[in-house]
Write a structure and sequence with these properties.
Number of strands: 0
Structural class: mainly alpha
Radius of gyration: 19 Å
Length: 101
């Protein structure tokens, strides 16, 4: 079935939902950008004071916190943890880069 065969009401609803998804994706990207601005500042502060790039205790607390938030939002906590682990790995990579410079 191609788009010309879809019921116009269904196509309208698909378009509306997809526009919402696009807006949410844009918000997610902007929120991640803001988060990384903050973590860059943390990385500089750590480098200035010879602190390690990673903080396993903080990371564990953040993962537990995010899993709980995901559960209350009815989002798969395993998915939320995978996402945060990916973000944390990127933050640590940035902190290591800052520490080397």
């Amino acid at each position: 079935m191609n788009n010309s065969e879809i019921d116009p009401a269904v196509q309208t609803e698909l378009t509306r939902l997809r526009e919402s998804i696009d807006n949410i994706d844009a918000a997610v990207v902007h929120m991640l950008a803001e988060r990384f601005k903050c973590t860059q500042q943390v990385g500089r502060l750590k480098a200035e004071h010879d602190l390690p790039p990673a903080d396993p205790a903080r990371e564990a607390r953040q993962i537990a916190r995010l899993r709980a938030l995901a559960e209350s939002a009815r989002l798969d906590p395993g998915f939320a943890e995978k996402l945060l682990n990916f973000i944390i790995a990127e933050v640590i990579r940035h902190h290591e880069t800052i520490a080397r410079s």
